[in-house]
Inverse folding.
């Protein structure tokens, strides 16, 4: 018998537009101890399904049809008391943002003790013992100390481990995970995923992942279902989904991803045109009809399409699934033919120092790097590495306290944006992670473009401004009529395109992009990346791309700088950094990358502990406290030498280059 069996589920919501169906005709099975993944773009109904399982439908939601059978009990017909016994007891949930599950006014220990007290009538002493045991199980050092802390005293990774511990305290049979690693550094993400798999084996808990990160799903799930517009469109073992996807939507999601070994010159990303229809607006025949290149009039638009088994354990909702096996037509790559280019950004021993009380904090410590005209320079590293601090100094939003930073020939290290002059301000523009920071919610989205044109003196009369704004909208593939819309009327991808248009309003020579696609669906991410590369190729712009996603960096970068605690660990051409010799930190970052292919095996290198405080660093190598290949006291006491691996590939490490060359590659094909 399946642990969870959902049959013919239909979930409806009452809205001002009437009753809309968020989930239609959905059936799936999850076995005991199984790891199951559900993927799809935002708005496909994934989180609604989780809420339906938990019975959190709100006043305007209801299950209009079907069954949700958990351990044989139909949760749709369960009483409120029965649901309370199941929630947190037999079924637990881990949300995307751990802060929402933690009360900021209560200590961690007190919050976690409530679970065994409420669900098992445990005494306070027994509950405290159980909490300490589970905190140790999730690899939090010194559980007693953690129990005395408040949520704000923990890092993001620690808070996520606490939330997982809270979910496990009642020993649930099913753990629901709604984007459990989104927003975490790749190293923390890898550690959390390892932890969940370890706990699954230890406790026999079934895991139900919801994610838009197909790399995560590929690495941790036995079986994967793909959801679109409230319906399952494909359900198969993980290896089959990635090797032989049969629904056009599944193939579209995979085509939007940078695959191992691919780059912007050989494999342009293929984004899915259009957007997911809002609840109740999808065609009654094929929900994917309006976005599908294989849609055939008179066949796909006639009647509802069933979910059929086309091979053992492989279900597809498509009448043309056999045609979906044909190779994807990829667009022509838009990229610059790189030649020897002049350097437009040059940092030499650049330092940004802060004072916290009487202590010094070096956010950037003797930073040396360069970006060439028309190239993509990627800066990678965990949170706290100093990436964004450098970006702010480069854009004039902050100033350095030492060293030099030459931009287009002038040293601007100590010159904030207000002292740089209009020409230099226009030359360096920035795209932030959250486009809402660029858009005023009370103004139409065309307003920041109009303001930028006037501010930079590019256009002053209304006719010229209107023509330039229309051209900018067309450049980012948006209809010019959209300039009158308010930010709340646009999707996340559309708002990010507006932010890019604003940044290019003055034809900048350097664009600083700080995590510009990390919060977007994979298809929207592909479209935005293609757009950036296309504009860069046309305007020969230098792109400084800041990210923690090394899979994406491998795809689009020309050169890479790896930072840790304010210092450069390794730098060089992108191809060099993805093959030995590696800096041990680069090797650990690469091993943590979730690869969207279950046939690719990665070396398992997991960093112990959290990134140290920048107020308490060693005089030697900054990475010494976490390095799995540490040589000894020399790493703590002496700054590392710079090893020249050739072709501008520099590694800051005490380990001899000959030994670094002997490192096994991180990525290997499964035999």
């Amino acid at each position: 018998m399946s642990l969870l069996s959902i049959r013919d589920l239909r979930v409806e919501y009452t809205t001002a537009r009437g009753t809309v169906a968020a989930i239609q005709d959905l059936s799936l099975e999850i076995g005991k101890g199984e790891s199951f993944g559900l993927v799809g773009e935002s708005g496909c109904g994934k989180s609604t399904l989780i809420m339906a399982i938990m019975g959190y439908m709100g006043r305007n939601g209801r299950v209009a049809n079907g069954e949700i059978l958990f351990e044989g009990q139909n949760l749709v017909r369960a009483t409120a008391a029965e649901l309370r016994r199941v929630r947190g007891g037999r079924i637990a949930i881990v949300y995307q943002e751990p802060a929402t599950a933690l009360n900021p006014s209560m200590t961690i220990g007190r919050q976690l003790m409530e679970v065994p007290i409420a669900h098992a009538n445990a005494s306070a002493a027994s509950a405290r013992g159980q909490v300490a045991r589970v905190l140790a199980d999730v690899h939090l050092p010194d559980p007693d100390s953690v129990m005395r802390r408040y949520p704000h005293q923990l890092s993001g990774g620690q808070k996520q481990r606490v939330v997982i511990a809270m979910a496990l305290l009642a020993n649930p049979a099913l753990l629901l995970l709604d984007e459990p690693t989104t927003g975490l550094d790749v190293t923390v993400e890898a550690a959390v995923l390892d932890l969940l798999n370890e706990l699954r084996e230890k406790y026999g808990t079934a895991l139900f992942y919801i994610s838009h990160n197909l790399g995560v799903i590929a690495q941790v799930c036995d079986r994967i279902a793909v959801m679109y517009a409230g319906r399952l469109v494909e359900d198969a073992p993980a290896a089959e989904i990635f090797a032989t996807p049969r629904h056009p939507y599944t193939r579209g999601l995979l085509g939007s991803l940078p695959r191992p070994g691919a780059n912007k010159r050989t494999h342009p990303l293929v984004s899915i045109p259009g957007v997911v229809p809002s609840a109740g607006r999808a065609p009654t025949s094929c929900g994917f009809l309006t976005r599908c290149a294989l849609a055939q009039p008179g066949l796909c638009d006639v009647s509802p399409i069933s979910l059929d088994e086309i091979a053992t354990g492989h279900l597809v909702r498509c009448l043309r699934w056999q045609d979906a096996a044909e190779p994807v037509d990829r667009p022509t790559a838009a990229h610059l033919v790189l030649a020897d280019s002049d350097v437009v950004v040059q940092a030499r021993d650049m330092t940004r120092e802060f004072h916290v009380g009487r202590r010094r904090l070096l956010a950037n410590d003797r930073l040396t790097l360069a970006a060439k005209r028309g190239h993509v320079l990627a800066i990678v590293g965990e949170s706290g590495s100093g990436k964004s601090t450098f970006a702010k100094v480069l854009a004039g939003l902050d100033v350095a306290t030492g060293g030099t930073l030459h931009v287009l020939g002038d040293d601007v290290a100590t010159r904030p944006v207000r002292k740089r002059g209009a020409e230099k301000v226009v030359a360096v523009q920035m795209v932030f992670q959250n486009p809402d920071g660029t858009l005023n919610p009370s103004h139409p989205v065309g307003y920041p473009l109009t303001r930028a044109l006037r501010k930079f003196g590019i256009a002053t009369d209304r006719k010229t401004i209107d023509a330039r704004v229309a051209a900018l909208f067309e450049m980012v593939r948006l209809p010019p009529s959209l300039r009158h819309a308010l930010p709340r009327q646009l999707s996340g991808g559309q708002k990010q395109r507006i932010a890019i248009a604003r940044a290019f309003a003055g034809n900048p020579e350097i664009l600083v992009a700080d995590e510009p696609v990390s919060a977007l669906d994979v298809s929207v991410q592909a479209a935005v990346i293609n757009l950036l590369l296309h504009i860069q190729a046309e305007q020969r712009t230098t792109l400084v791309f800041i990210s923690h996603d090394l899979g994406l960096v491998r795809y689009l970068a020309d050169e890479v700088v790896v930072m840790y605690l304010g210092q450069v660990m390794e730098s060089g051409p992108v191809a060099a950094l993805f093959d030995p010799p590696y800096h041990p930190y680069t090797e650990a970052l690469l091993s943590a990358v979730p690869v969207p292919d279950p046939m690719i095996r990665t070396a398992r290198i997991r960093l112990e502990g959290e990134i140290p405080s920048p107020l308490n660093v060693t005089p030697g190598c900054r990475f010494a406290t976490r390095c799995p290949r540490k040589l000894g006291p020399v790493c703590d006491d002496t700054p590392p030498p710079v090893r020249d691996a050739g072709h501008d590939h520099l590694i800051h490490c005490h380990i001899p280059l000959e030994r670094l060359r002997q490192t096994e590659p991180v990525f290997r094909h499964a035999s």
